Each structure stands twice: as C-alpha cells, then as structure tokens.
Structures
1.
Amino acid sequence: MSGRFPVIMLVCSAGGLEALGAVLGRLPENLPAAVVALQHLEPDRASQLPMLLDRYTALTVAPATDGDALTPGRVLIAPPGQHTLIAVDASIALIPSGSLPPYRPSADLLLTTAAIALTTRLIAVVLTGRGNDGATGATAVHRFGGTVIVSSLDSSTQQAMPEATIGRDHVAGHVVPLSDVPILLQELVTAPLITPARKPTTDDD
C-alpha cells in the first residue's frame, strides 16, 4: 500500500475515554487511515486506555512504542510518562515527559510534529478536555495544510480544549457534534488526498 494514506490524530483530556469510544466505535474495521489517540495521563501510572478502547472498536488497538509505523486500520495509543511525536519518516518517536507539567503527554507536541511530517494527509481532532493543549498543535496542522476537526462545545464534557482551538482564527475547518465526528472522518479519509505543491523550478536551478 502507498504511504500516502490519511492519518487521524484524536486528542483529549478529561472525559476523553467516552469521547474516544464514541468516535472509534463508529469507524469501520477496514478504515483506510491510521489513527493515533492521545489522552492526558498521569506519568507514573500504568494506562488501561488501550484495553478499554479495544472494547469499543473493531479497529486494532495497541499502545504506541518507539519506532512504530503508522498503519491503516490500526489505532496507536500515546503511553503515559512519554511524549508521543511523529518522526520525519512518519513513525512514532517517544521521549520522556519528565515529572513536571505542562500537559502530559502533550497534544501540542504530537500535532506539531505530525503536521510537519504528514502535511496534507493529517486530520487532527480536538475533543473534550480541560486546559488549552492542542490549540497550538492544531494551528500547526492548519498551517501545513492538514484538516482540523473540533467537537462542538455543547457535545463536549469539558469545553476548554475544544474552545481553545475554536478560538484560533480560521484553524478549525469543522466544528461538529461529537456524534458527527466519525461520519465526517469517513468522508474525509475516502476523499482524494491533496499533494503538497512543489516549488517551481527554473532553468537556473
């Protein structure tokens, strides 16, 4: 399969288990896109998120490990105690998050590195949560040609995270109820991918 498949990034904080389950539970097993899911987690506690989300969805769910490839139909879960980044070869890169805030794992770091590596094939989804993590990362996604979806405030258990992204001018391409997010994702991942424009060349190049 070509490496030009879409990649979905789902980021959230408080209330995230239910929101992630609502989205993943309505995505088909043969989804032609890779998925990475990130929820803020205590760094010193083992995460049950992969096991819990596996109950919601027909997709394959696994904790992200360093060097993992992004694969269509597979959901990788950001682990506790480490920031999850996307390397230039579009693989997972993990770095220790340390013992101090800001948000851990960081949605901004995930989305910003993914925006640079994946450009137009990235779809970022900001779901329920406290704080403003994800807004800067979503801005990077928009800047590099990706698509930003935000769950509407009235459908978010905690409104701060989606509200922070909505507050960034022209960043959110779609603000929709949580129940509509999986429908929109399926429409977007089956649409033709946009190829990034190349710099024009001249005879002197």
Note: The chain is about 25% helix and 20% strand.
2.
Amino acid sequence: MNYKQQLYPWVIYRHLPNLQRLTVARFRRRNDAEEHLRIIKRLLPQAEFARSFEVNSQQLTNCAR
C-alpha cells in the first residue's frame, strides 16, 4: 500500500464475476464513503458494492509494539 492509499483508507469496491473486484473510489472519512456509496447504489441498483477500511500489515505491526 503506497502513501497516498494510506491517506484514504476507506474504499468502495464493485464486485465483479469470478471473485474479482474493482476499486471505485477511496476516501479519508467514513461519512464520505457512505454518502458516495448511497449515490452509486441509486445510479446502478443492479451492481453489488462493498465499503471497507484498509489497513496495511506494517501499520498493524507498529500498533502491536
């Protein structure tokens, strides 16, 4: 995970066939991600989306110390 991705930990993914996913957008705040997800679901009601919080393994290691 690069530095820019660390600044935007909230991610919206679109589920694709064969267990693939497409990153739709990244956000700094959960509220922003939730609002964007609501709008996307209205525009594309047939598509499946997921919101997640990404933490890289190095950050977890530093927290455990």
Note: The chain has one domain: 3-64.
3.
Amino acid sequence: MAIDLESDPDRAADLCRAAYQRLVETTAGLTDHQSASPSRLPTWSVGHVLTHLARNADGHSRRLHGALLGKDVPKYEGGGEQRSQEINEGAGRPAAEVLADLEASQRRLEDLFSESSAAGWPNTLMLGHTRYGPRGCPAHRLREIEMHHVDLGLGYEPANWSERYVAWDLDVLLSTVSERLGDPLHRRDLMAWLAGRAPLPSELTLDPWG
C-alpha cells in the first residue's frame, strides 16, 4: 500500500532516525582503508558517500532552520559547486573524523525535526530551489540515507530497506520512468510490458535518476 511520507513529516522523521541507526551499525569500526576504498558510485570512495550524507544533513538543517525563522533558504547556498567542493574536501579525512562529522550533522538535523514538529512544520510553500517544502525534508533525507547506505558497498542491500520506505519511494520513482526512457520510442514497449502484453525489450534503458 502506497504512503505519502512528504505529507507525513513526523512519520518520515521517525523512519529517518531508524535508518540512520542502521547506517551507524554498518559503519561501526570503519577503517581508514575502508573509507578510502571505492564505493558503488563511480569516482566516489566510501568517504565521499559518507561526507555527502553529512553535508546533505546540513543542507536539510539549513532549510528547516530557515523555515522556522520564516526564511526560504536553499540546501546549498553555493549550489552544486558548493556541494561538490565540500564533498571532495572532506572525503579524504580519517574514517573516525568522517563518522564524527556525520553523527554531529545528523543530530543537528534530528533536533530540527523535533523543533519543526513542535512548530507544526511551518512555511510549507518555501521550496528552497527544490520541488518540496520543509515538510518534505524528512522523507527526502530518508531516501538519501537508504540509497547511499546501499552505495557504500558494506553489506547493506536493497533487501534491507524498510517496508514503509519502499511503500513511499517506489511509487515516486515509478513516476519518473517515462521521462527517463533513453529512447522515447520505447514508451509503447514499456506500456505493453506493464500491462502484461509483451516482454520487456533488452535494449530498453533509463537515464540515471537523481
């Protein structure tokens, strides 16, 4: 059964906290060698992925703190360039430093989840250069943790994703399929497969999501 976590930020925040604890369990005892090893994302090490998760938490914190003050603040003031620079600068740190940074960033964000909940998740129309308001921040943070936990390549797999997360994000991702078809001529092939009328062509591809 599909659920809409963007419209239920308190539930999404709880799922986010639980997902983060699973990430903590996976990365407990992470060595410097593991942190410097390749992740499942091209050109990114495990340290890159974990640093991205820390900076992503900071981005959501900026948005929520701004919303509490009545200010429409973007996740990254310097846009994609700032995001890339911060990730690259932090990826090569010792594993313990990377994990401590992520822990501090996540805790700040979780505190803001609580503050925002107490305030009724105000200023819902402040989009911060995204497609979702402050109420959507917990759900989108949950996606970041669950997806990138798998990207670490440290034993956490899609089979470990929570059922409630899948119930939300599967439908969200399915809604992007049509626009991501590598060849628009395959729209009919995809429709026929979804309707159980034909096999899925092996040459059908999707552009990267995200």
Note: The chain has two domains: 5-175, 178-210.
